[in-house]
Amino acid sequence: MSEQRRLIIRGGRRIEGEIAVQGAKNSALPLLAAAVLCKGQTELYNCPRLSDCDAACRILTALGCSCRREGNVVCTDASALSTSEVSEKLMREMRSSIIFMGALLGRTGQCRLSFPGGCEIGSRPIDFHLDAFRRMGARIREEHGYISCTAAKLRGAKISFPVPSVGATENVMLAAVLAEGSTEIHNAAREPEICDLAGFLIRCGAKIEGAGTGTIHIEGVRRLNGCRYTVMPDRIAAATYLCCGAITRGEVLLTHADMTSLGLVVPVLEQIGCSIYAFGGGSIYLNARRTLKAPQQIRTAPYPGFPTDAQPPLMALCSTLPGTTMFAETIFENRYRHVSELTRLGANIRVEGRVAVVEGVNRLTGAELEAGDLRGGAAMVTAALFAEGITKIGHICYINRGYEDIEGCLKGVGADIRTL
Ligand code: UD1
Asked: Structure pTM?
């Protein structure tokens, strides 16, 4: 990915004010794929304007579905679906395109797509997805970088994942809702986005129980209709903006947010010394105008543990707090790509394998950085808000994959940030 423009941030300003949190990228993408299963119109509200969502819409269009966006509403109709093949070019645009596999298999009994692209934060295999489809009766062939799946009749099955995988759980749900018979998913991912997908599919006519727990039961139905659905708030964008508020020792009110979906992020920020309150109607207030201190240990884990996606922005925050924090990244092996860039700002971080030890410093200074992945890029933005002088962040296309108008959101709360 290349992008000439850069984010230019002059740090040192306290963040104060309100940010409306976008709809969740990680929910919108499976919901867009789920639209493939529906005969009839689907209207998705609160669908964030992100390059990854645009890529999903391009896939829908290439499959023969109608797909149009008006602001944050995306209307799709998959009645005229005409192919179950996704080209390599479209697949490469984002990793989550693999989610179309379950939807296409469920709808047509076949699909052909290439191995997915996406952030380089680890090897990100798809063996759980493929093993599960095989158990459901699909024949899978891998050749010349393409995967072909066919199932004369997709059958429900008992599926047990070795570790909870968000994408594999979603893919099996998508394949199972129209399969014959019942499917049980054991050691299923429990992330809030799984509940959002289940909520959408149930509204379309699917029979699903247990989403949000480790065991999901699905009873196949013959047909799904379209529906109107509002994408849940983005818990990782919310966590990022809370870290931005905290690193500037500021005060921020997030609206259109959901505190319950933030899991361990809130207790960790409280442990650091921030005050956080939820208000009715989906608002979260953070006050960091006080002395903060480093948390001792952060271990990423599947939900409800500390989210791996919030690890990079939290690490940026911890790099400015008095004390030492030990991070253990248990989900992706290559999720410390931001460390070398934070170090350029003056952060003191040592990485050994999956552990990063952060010694807080009281000063960071601006530098020229390059985003290498989405959340690592968010960590750089977070740190730059604290750093004295100017930080320039290149390859912002990574950041734009997951943050809707990050510049406008932060400018609105007093940050000195622009794109050049
Ligand atoms: C999703 C999120 C991503 C988040 C991640 C973990 C989306 C679009 N992306 O990614 O932002 O960081 O969950 O919360 O929702 N694994 C295998 N084989 C597989 C599948 C997964 O070994 O077939 C492993 C992965 O390498 C990883 C772990 O399982 O170590 C969890 O990955 P998974 O939950 O599948 O992540 P994604 O769905 O890709």
From this structure: 0.96
Q: Nearest-CA neighbor of 56 among 15, 116, 122? A: 116
The token duo for 274 is 């921030």
List, by residue range, all CATH 3.65.10.10 domains of the chain.
7-22+233-419, 25-230
Closest atom of ligand 1 relative to the 236 alpha carbon: 11
Best probe residue, ligand 1, of 51, 124, 196, 240 (max atoms within 8 Å of C-beta): 124
Residue nearest to atom 4 of ligand 1 (CA): 309
Tokens of 354: 């999956």
**CATH homologous superfamily of 25-230:** Enolpyruvate transferase domain (3.65.10.10)
CATH number of 7-22+233-419: 3.65.10.10
Name the nearest CA neighbour of 235 among 270, 262, 199: 262
Q: Which of 93, 128, 166, 264 to mutate to test the pocket of ligand 1 (most atoms within 8 A of CB)?
A: 166
Q: Cβ distance 309 to 261 under 8 Å? A: no
Mind listing the pLDDT tens digit of every residue in the chain (420 residues)?
A: 555 899 999 999 999 999 999 999 999 999 999 999 999 999 999 999 999 999 999 999 999 999 999 999 999 999 999 999 998 888 888 778 899 999 999 999 999 998 765 445 556 789 999 999 999 999 999 888 889 999 988 999 999 999 999 999 999 999 999 999 999 999 999 999 999 999 999 999 999 999 999 999 999 999 999 999 999 999 999 999 999 999 999 999 999 999 999 999 999 999 999 999 998 889 999 999 989 999 999 999 999 999 999 999 999 999 999 999 999 999 998 899 999 999 999 999 999 999 999 999 999 999 999 999 999 999 999 999 999 999 999 999 999 999 999 999 999 999 999 999
353 by DSSP, 3-state: which? Answer: coil
How far is Cα 255 from Cα 247, in angstroms, rounded to an integer? 19
